[in-house]
Design a protein that fits this description.
The chain has helices spanning 16-30, 49-52, 69-73, 80-86, 100-110, 118-123, 144-159, 165-173, 189-205, 248-262, 267-283, 288-291, 294-307, 314-333, 349-366, 381-394, 405-416, 432-445, 452-459, 470-483, 489-497, 501-513, 520-536, 542-554, 559-573, 579-582, 590-598; strands spanning 32-33, 47-48, 57-59, 78-79, 89-93, 128-132, 176-182, 216-223, 239-243, 379-380, 419-423, 426-429. It has 27 helices and 12 strands.
Length: 599
């Protein structure tokens, strides 16, 4: 690893003034965070990003889906500065909400600061070139040179200063710069590929082969996983790494920062609220998938502060977050009353939710049922507008006029963040989770009172086992529990009667990881029945034993009966061994199966 250099190791008299002015203005531009939900509407002032930001980690292993906190804690990762010092050209892949763009802002601000900090102490007081790709107009870009010119002119306007090619070239040629291309996944495939080729050629031209121990030229590209196309052009110079979810230490740091910003003059309240929030996050294990993602941790903190309590389950958490995005966030940010802001009609909350539910359902049912990777469907602006217009025309309970479809789309994208534009002219839900939750809400809302069993068969039960529907169906039953509290005997018994592995896997997840009103003894009775049926069946049971062990051992959302479930199943298998030690993988279940047969 190179020795730390804080300032450029070369004479730069001709550009010292521009160097200092550029860094100062860049820090002012990117060193702030818009903390909606932290400050009241009357105090809507951005806070210092460094006051809330928690340094991210990267690792060569990806976690596409978080299933337990233990899984996250096991990661061995690097901070970004250490990773760059080891490999100066990084391709950073991160899921939505993992902090890619915030990382770009943080590096631009911290590396530009005069005061010594952990970032510039490692990488130097840099000339940072943050190229946020979605801010560029690619209809006028046909080469790296035209991209560079457009970015430079736009940045000069934003910073209100003169920025010449000679200034940037001087520091690039002396290998004292950090260049960031943020948001590759937001480009069309054709532009994505062309830009990667341009960047590779450009890196070669600025001296990739002439690095020395004093070189401080770094380049990052960021994208969601879908932004790294299969052609592998980025592999010519870049090392691919993955942004990791927050571990417990990072969660603790972020929560304390969040409440520190929220209550800057009341340290006792800061500490008390942060401690209470962290303890509840640990207690509700069903929130593991949410609390480890920076954006969702921020939303959980916001929801807890807004409603006075933390949602105790995934279903309730999604419900509160959607409500926050659609309603509370607008109240906090006071959009319509801001000078110069776009004025939109005061649409009723229920109307907006009904549109989102139907839109999510329409998209989800249009996806390929045999391809889980394509459930998070992407549609063109014209297609999406047509869908919204059709919803407004056909749903008589919605009072928004079809002529307002375009304004409504703009509202969903700009103000709620539930719909995003990852590629120019193409839209999707900001996270598949929201699409799944809103689809489940629509199915619940449309439940027929005349023949509910047939409706559930058509909309839910017959889709168990289809790609993309497992989570929707679990969320449906969570919503049903939150609203009615009724049991689900028909579905539970039907899953047992079919003697089908897919339905039995669903039953395990429904019993153990989903909101319901079933008591401990009822849950145990169904699990005993499953164990008995497997022990007497001729079909392969190994994957089912493994799935049951994994769910019970690590993913219990109801801690009050978790111990009883584990104790019973352990007794079935062996009086002394633990369930997780007996069943480590589908291949390790033969001995367990024999024990169950003996039972």
């Amino acid at each position: 690893m190179p020795n730390a250099l804080l300032n450029p190791p070369f004479i730069d008299h001709a550009y010292t003034r521009t160097f200092n002015l550029y860094r100062r203005k860049l820090e002012q531009l990117y060193g702030r965070a818009d903390m909606a939900g932290v400050m009241e509407a009357t105090e809507d002032v951005p806070v210092n990003l460094r006051d809330i930001y928690v340094p991210l980690r990267v690792a060569d292993e990806d976690i596409p889906k978080i299933t337990s906190s233990e899984q996250v804690e096991a990661i061995v990762g690097n901070d970004i500065a250490s990773a760059l010092l080891q490999t100066p050209y990084l391709a950073i892949s991160g899921l939505p909400g993992s902090g890619k763009t915030t990382l770009t802002h943080y590096l631009a601000g911290e590396l530009s600061r005069v005061e010594r900090n952990s970032a510039n102490a490692a990488l130097g007081r840099q000339v940072v070139i943050p190229i946020i790709l979605r801010e560029l107009d690619f209809s006028t870009i046909n080469s790296f040179e035209t991209l560079w010119q457009q970015w430079r002119e736009r940045m000069a306007t934003r910073l209100e200063m003169t920025l010449s090619d000679d200034f940037f070239n001087f520091y690039l040629n002396n290998q004292w710069a950090v260049v960031i291309f943020d948001g590759f996944d937001e480009l069309s495939e054709q532009i994505n590929q062309a830009l990667m080729q341009w960047i590779n050629a450009w890196i070669a031209s600025v001296g990739v082969q002439t690095r020395t121990s004093k070189s401080r030229f770094f380049c990052l590209i960021t994208a969601r996983p879908s932004g790294f196309l299969s052609g592998g052009e980025y592999e010519q110079h870049f090392h691919k790494t993955y942004l990791q979810p927050f571990n417990q230490q990072q969660i603790d740091q972020y929560v304390h920062n969040w409440y520190g910003v929220r209550y800057p003059h009341d340290s006792l309240t800061q500490q008390a609220k942060a401690k209470d929030f962290i303890e509840k996050l640990k207690k509700y294990r069903g929130l593991a998938e949410l609390k480890h993602r920076p954006i969702y941790l921020a939303m959980l903190a916001y929801v807890a502060e807004t409603y006075g309590e933390l949602p105790v389950s995934r279903t309730l958490a999604y419900s509160k977050m959607v409500d926050a995005y659609v309603h509370q966030m607008e109240l906090i940010k006071n959009f319509n009353n801001k000078k110069g802001g776009i004025q939109l009609p005061d649409w009723h909350y229920d109307d907006k939710i009904r549109v989102l539910e139907t839109l999510a359902f329409t998209l989800h049912t249009q996806a390929d049922p045999d391809n889980a990777e394509q459930m998070h469907i992407l549609v063109s602006r014209d297609q999406l507008l047509a869908m919204i217009q059709n919803i407004l025309k056909t749903d008589r309970m919605i009072h928004i006029k079809p002529a307002q479809a375009e304004a409504l789309l703009g509202y969903f994208v700009a103000r709620t963040g539930l719909l995003i534009e990852p590629q120019q002219g193409y839209f999707q839900f900001s996270h598949l989770t929201f699409q799944e939750f809103l689809t489940a809400k629509r199915i619940y809302r449309k439940l027929s009172k005349r023949d509910p069993i047939q409706y559930l068969k058509t909309e839910l039960f017959n889709k168990i086992g289809q790609a993309g529907w497992h989570e929707v169906i679990l969320l449906y039953f969570g919503i049903d529990t939150l609203n009615s509290g009724e049991d689900h005997d028909y579905v539970l018994q039907r899953c047992l009667q079919l003697d089908n592995a897919q339905h039995e896997r669903f039953l395990i997840d429904l019993l153990i990881t989903t909101d319901h009103t079933l008591g401990t003894e009822t849950v145990l009775a169904y699990l005993r029945t499953l164990v008995f049926l497997w022990s007497t069946s001729e079909r392969s049971k190994e994957p089912l034993y493994w799935h049951l062990a994994q769910v019970v051992d690590g993913h219990v959302e109801h801690p009050e009966y978790a111990e009883s479930v584990v104790d019973y199943l352990t007794a079935c298998l062996d009086q002394t061994a633990t369930l997780s030690s007996l069943i480590q993988s589908p291949e390790d279940t033969q001995g367990c199966e024999e024990l169950l047969v003996d039972q």
